[in-house]
Structure formats: C-alpha cells, structure tokens
Amino acid sequence: MPNRLAQATSPYLLQHADNPVxxxxxxxxxxxxxxxxxxxxxxxxxxxxxxxxxxxAHESFEDDDAAVYMNEHFVSVKVDRxxxxxxxxxxxxxxQAATGQGGWPMSVFMTPDGEPFYFGTYFPPEPRxxxxxxxxxxxxxxxxxxxxxxxVGEVAAKITRDLAERELSIASAGVPxxxxxxxxxxxxxxxxxxxxxxxxxxxxxxxxxxVEFLLRHHARAGSVAALEMAEGLCGAMARSSLYDQVGGGFxxxxxxxxxxxxxxxxxxxxxxxxxxxxxxxxxxxRATGSGLARRVALETADFMVRELGTAEGGxxxxxxxxxxxxxxxxVEGAYYVWTPxxxxxxxxxxxxxxxxxxxGVTEEGTFEHGRSVLQLPQSDGVFDAERIATVRSRxxxxxxxxPAPGRDDKVVAAxxxxxxxxxxxxxxxxxxxxLVDAAxxxxxxxxxxxxxxxxxxxxxxxxxRAGAHxxxxxxxxxxxxxxxxxxxxxxEGVWLEFAxxxxxxxRTRFTGEEGTLYDTAADAERLIRRxxxxxxxxxxxxxxxxxxxxxxxAAHTGSDDHRTAAEQALGVVRTLAPRAPRFVGWGLAxxxxxxxxxxxxxxxxxxxxxxATAALxxxxxxxxxxxxxxxxxxxxxxxxxxxxxxxxxxxxPTAYVCRGFVCDAPTxxxxxxxxxxxx
Length: 679
Description:
The strands form six sheets. Strands 2-1-3-4 form a four-stranded mixed β-sheet, with helices on both faces. The longest helix is centred in the middle third of the chain and has 18 residues, at about 270-290. By secondary structure, it is of the alpha+beta class. Strand 3 (about 105-110) and strand 4 (about 115-120) form a beta hairpin. It has four domains: about 5-165, Glutaredoxin (3-Layer(aba) Sandwich), CATH 3.40.30; about 180-320 and about 410-595, Glycosyltransferase (Alpha/alpha barrel), CATH 1.50.10.10; about 335-400, no CATH class; about 600-675. The protein is built from 25 helices and 19 strands. It is about 50% helix and about 10% strand.
C-alpha cells in the first residue's frame, strides 16, 4: 500500500511511495506525530539521480524488517534536496560540522523540534569497511533516546546553538579590487595540473564558473595565462569521459583511477551542469573561435532540448546514472558504454575500427565487464571530421534503442533560469533560432506556472503542476539572470521587467543588514537556522547569482540602489577569493563585470529583422567585454531604458556604448563596435 509520498510532485519522493517505511514528507504533521509518540525523527535526504541513494533504498528502505523497526521507533521523513535546498543546506551543514564530510544520501536523527543529534550519509545493510550497519545505527539511536534522553537533548541543543551562531556578515568587506582578482588567478594557477589541464585532485567536478571568471579576466585584463588555463580546462573536459562523446552533454563528475590514472565518470547528467557548461563553451568560442568549443556548446544545447525538454516547455532536472543493461539489472553507466563487438554490430568492421581508435574503446575495456567509456585520446585533426560525424550519428541512433536512464521530470526554477541564459546566447551566437525559441518556451513556463500574482516563485513544477515549496534565493537570482540574457538576445523588454520584479523580492525579502543575503526569504518557513551560503558549488550560490543579476539590472536601468546592492553582495568575494577562488568562481566573474563597468550597449534600428540593425546587434552580443548588457529596439522605443534619447545617426542603425557615466561616440560600423567591445 503506498505511503504518504504518493501525493508528492517530486519524482524522488515518488520513488519511495511504495516502500514499507511509513514515510512522511517534510511537513509540520511529521514533527507533531513525533511529539505525540515521543520518538525521534529520522530525516533521509537525497535526489533522484543519486546512485547511492538508490542503493540504500534497495538495501534498507525496501526491506520489511528494517521498515518495521523504523515505523515502530521513529517518524521517518524523506526530503528531495532539489525540492527543499533549504532543509538540505541546514542539516548538511550540521553533518559536515560533526563528521568533517557530507554527501547524499544524508541521514540525520533529530528531536521532534528539529534539533539534530546524530548524523551520517550512506549506511550499509551489514557492517562494512568500518561502517556500522543501518540496523545498528537505528538500534543505537533508539537506545540513546530511551535511556540517555538528557544527554541527547544536550547534544541537540548545543549543535543547534552552534549552527545559529554561524551568521555571516561579510557584505561590508568592500568590492573586489584588481588585487583580489590577481590573487585569485595566482591561486588557481597553483591548483592546476599543467600536464592534464585539470585542477589537482582525484575527484574532478566541472569548474564552469571558474572558467567563466578566467574568460572574463582575459577579456578585461588581457591575461594570457587566464585564457590558456580556460582553454586547457575546457579541452580536458571535452576530450574526457566527463563528456558524452556520442550524445553531447556532461556527466556529473569523474574519478581518477589509481591504475593508470584514467578518468571514470559518475554517469548522472544534471541540467545545471549542462546549462552552465553550454554557456561557458559558447563564451570560449566567442573569445577564441575554437571549433571544439563550438561543437561542444551546440551538442550540449541539443542534448538539453532533446533529452531534458518537457512537454510543458521547461527542462527536467536530471538523468539517472543507472539504467537496464539489457538483462534486467540496473547498472551504472550501462547506457553509455561500448565494446568493440557492439561497435562492429552498429558500424561494420571498418568504421568500428575507426571508432575504437577515435574513442579509445579496447578489448579489455576501460570501464567494467570489458566495456569502455568513450573519450578522445587523440587529436580530432588525425581523423576525417565528416566520417566521424556520421559515426557519432549512427552510434547515437543505435544507443537510443537501449533502455534509457530514468529522468527526474521536475522543473526547478533556478536551473531553468541557467538553461534559458545558455540557450538564448548559444542560439544567438550560432544562428540557431530554435534554441532561442526553446529558451523562450522555458521562460514562458516559469512566468505562467511558477510566478504567482505577487511575483513570488514556486521552486518546482511537474507535469504542469506547480510544487508547494517556495523559491529560494538562487531561484530568484538565476531566473532573473536568464530573463536578462533573453532580453538582450530577443530585444523584448518584458523580460527586463520580469527580472526587475524578481530582484525586487531579492532586495526586500532575502536581504539583511548591510546587504547580507540569505538563502530563504524572511517570511519563509522557519528552520533551526536561516540558511546562508555564499560559496559557489555545483551552481552559483544564490548570493553571487544575485550579485550578478543585480549588477546587470543596474546597468540596464541606471538604478543606483541595485548597483549598491550588487557591490555589497560582492564583499563576500573580496573575503573568500584569495583563499578559495574555486568556491567563488561566479562571484569572481561578476567582479570582472563590475571592474569593467559593465558596458551598456544600446542598438537602435528599425527592426532586428533589418540586416544592418541585426549586424550591430549580433556584434554587440558577441563582444567579450565582461558582463556587458545589450538593449536593442527602434528609435524612441520604450522597451529598454538604455534606448531613451538614442537617435539614429544619419538615418542608419546605430550602436551606443557607455560605462561609468561616460559614453563613446555612437557608431554605425559593426567593425568599430567589435573593436570597442572586444571579440
């Protein structure tokens, strides 16, 4: 019989709806039930594409004996971290403080008041590798709760007090300086492995926001080292098994194997990674003209539209790492790996031999059971590009007949905002109006379904139904970022208006004293502490994303209040960048825009369909000046404030470039505009 999760909109929660565990969603009733029964709360946090979350579910949550014990001695609460990032952030901070590490699945035991007292991540069904079994943990917590309640209460209260004292107030540190940026670049240079192009460390996540900083720093300061590092990182990622060499798009991360140092991916594919990386590779192409960057940007954009696009117009959150290997077993990576025999079956002997050499497929295999993960061990230039493109297409067609990985269909507002920005810009750069249309459909869905009559965002939706949970800071900031990019590409000022509406909420509901930002609104559900994390992780933090959107909006509108708010928020970059630049990559990128102006570009012409106007508009979009904003429209148009009092010059379409209250002479020449903006 299904449990309470059967009514959820989260695919992750729905995966647990038939567990014998009497799960509750995160709601007040769960804690009231724990008080009534005088039992602790067991909180389990994960997400649908999490491999070890599935493992623990199969081993323990689907086990009848474990479920009986849990149901008798605990109130069990299941949370999708992607749906409730605030709950995840608060308790993950406690886990990391107590154990020195964190991850998912996250397992937390707490009092009925939500105060945590015992933590962990994955627990096996039997003791293993120094870890207790899940049953041992349950029994130990139950014993402590029943026989040492006072001690448990003291521990829980102390942990809660310690968390509450972790209030950040670093917005007043001052804006990042030239020295801040230079020190960050120096630290990044020390962290890079020049032989491989990757950052040092065995686990390698895609550093998309750091690359964005490097590209912007090169554009502003002319740093050759920054550009070389960006090219090295992007080349290493694109040629490795992190990138899906057949279908486009990136996996979550790769691990360095001790034997031979080869890289093995964790095969889940996340919307946020692909949105950020699509934009980065498009910007790398804009800066260098790299054919590899162009191909990866377009293939990643096509992957998002093809495999993550939803019927309602948005983009799904993720694809699982696991899929059926053809024998009924769910195996990590089964969808993506190949043997020489499988290549021959699809391609024939000659093309199979070519594909094996090109993608590094061996008889021994580079993965498990004699299968290989595709990568590019050699330079593209050694092979015939047209023939390789045909091979890729045939392999993609054949792979599509395999059992596909599961898809988390929920639409997350923040990640769709990132996708909107990426698709709008990629479509504009490469003359792909279909990608711009995909960005417009996603933006329309967010306005239609996620925004209420007060301009407040719902965090998620699924199948055309908005979720019940309120948007957090990253939702407002990333959606505003997407809308601002869309406004620049389409010339439709309504997207600037929507961005302003969202940023109004950032300033009134998410901002504290001296511009300090919080991840949840002042009127949001109260947890044991108000989460506040300024560091960039897999995505820009809400804090740095808000700084970027506020700065762009200020450039569009001339709002001193929004610029001041952006500058206050960037105080965190000045504080953290010299010590940990990889954790404020987006903040550093925004700081580059601040140091450059950012430039304000107004393109005035009869219509964006007019060739001369379109040429100026395209040149403006392709400019590499960090964070430049672009407004395009007719003379006297009121879609954008930047168009006010901008006449045509001698009756011809004209571009105006300003920054810091100073404007260049207007120009009708795209080449002159290109020189002004870089690119």
